[in-house]
Write a structure and sequence with these properties.
It is a single chain. The chain contains 13 helices and 12 strands. By secondary structure, the protein is α+β, with helices and mostly antiparallel strands. The protein has 3 domains: about 60 residues, no CATH class; about 120 residues, no CATH class; about 110 residues, Endonuclease, Chain A. It has a 4-stranded mixed beta sheet with strand order 9-10-11-12, sandwiched between helices. It has a 3-stranded antiparallel beta sheet with strand order 1-3-2. A 3-stranded mixed beta sheet has the order 4-5-6. It starts with 10 loop residues before the first strand and ends in a 17-residue tail after the last helix.
């Protein structure tokens, strides 16, 4: 096979023919596994493709690289596809490959590829495995403009937490795109984003709290405890002495030893007068109002218990009026 320098040796039918391959030879190589068909007219080296497919998200990487192999000049990986390359968390299943650029005459948009027709300044383009891709800051703003609010927050929180970008960089991109569709939502996402959110579940939890009218909690608060040190909690409402903890699907499945540890931790927090609410992915996505009700109930209990625990004020002696000099 001719060397192309692309991921997994990706090559097109036209390039194989130019190297002297016949259609019969191409078909035979596919049958033998020497070539791996990615889409119509696009192949990868068989061994390299099989290795990439063992990677988490390897099929998505090959799909992106295949789309770029036939993309026109000036086209860049963007939106969700760029987020995948930058390891930015996404909410929901991946869409078709996202590319951004100005299509040249004769450039055909293939199935499974979405082309966003716009130009990009060079300062908002970087590379990943030789693929041109939008910078993390531009990727976040593009996503925030085009996906629902909570999905934008998941991506923005992730990029900030991983230090791929900063609020200052995001605001600079917003200024460049000030008249683009969806920019108002993107501004709201950027201002709401918080690097302290440590998972997509925490990100969508914050959005649900806001949508349900709950006051914003403090994030990742260390509570020393009265009886003994406890640790860091996901969400904390100090006024109500209420804690919310997120329980991801794999939290206990991957490490069963965490179950008794979590139970002991919960008991220590309750012994010290805190109210505690646990939240799962299913609860926050399917019944957020029920979660809000549980947290408000905890607010009432926490505030009542705190008032009962406070020492009564010491009695004040009545003031004795001073005698006035005659």
């Amino acid at each position: 096979m001719p060397a192309t320098g692309r991921i997994a040796g990706i090559i097109t039918t036209a390039e194989l023919r130019a190297a002297g391959w016949s259609d019969r030879q191409i078909s035979a190589a596919v049958q033998r596994g020497n070539l791996h068909s990615l889409s119509r007219g696009i192949y990868a080296d068989g061994a390299a493709a099989r290795e990439r497919l063992t990677w988490r998200g390897g099929d998505q990487l090959l799909a992106i690289a295949a789309a770029m192999a036939v993309a026109g000049p000036g086209v860049v990986v963007s939106h969700q596809s760029a987020a995948y390359l930058h390891s930015i968390d996404l909410l929901g299943a991946s869409r078709p490959v996202d590319l951004t650029g100005r299509p040249e005459r004769g450039w055909t948009i293939r199935a499974g590829v979405k082309l966003h027709a716009m130009t990009l300044p060079a300062s908002r383009i970087t590379t990943f495995l030789r693929l041109p891709v939008t910078t993390p800051a531009r990727t976040i703003v593009d996503l925030a403009r085009t996906v629902e609010f909570r999905a934008g927050v998941v991506a923005a929180d992730s990029a900030l937490r991983k230090r791929l970008t900063t609020k200052q960089e995001l605001r600079a991109v917003l200024a460049e795109c000030s008249r683009w569709p969806g920019i108002t939502r993107a501004r709201a996402v950027v201002e709401f984003a918080d690097e302290r959110a440590e998972s997509p579940l925490e990100s969508i939890g914050r959005v649900a709290f806001r949508d349900c009218g709950l006051p914003p909690p403090e994030l990742q608060v260390w509570l020393g405890g009265i009886s003994e040190p406890v640790g860091r909690v996901d969400f904390y409402w100090k006024q109500y002495r209420t804690i919310a903890e997120t329980d991801g699907a794999a939290k206990y499945r991957n490490d069963p030893r965490r179950v008794p540890e979590q139970l002991r931790r919960d008991q220590l927090l309750r012994n010290d007068g805190y109210e505690l609410v646990h939240i799962t992915w299913q609860q926050i996505t399917e019944t957020p109002q029920a979660v809000a009700v549980a947290i408000r109930d905890a607010f009432r209990r926490g505030q009542r218990n705190w008032e009962l625990a406070r020492p009564a004020p010491s009695p004040q002696r009545a003031a004795v009026p001073r005698a006035h000099a005659s």
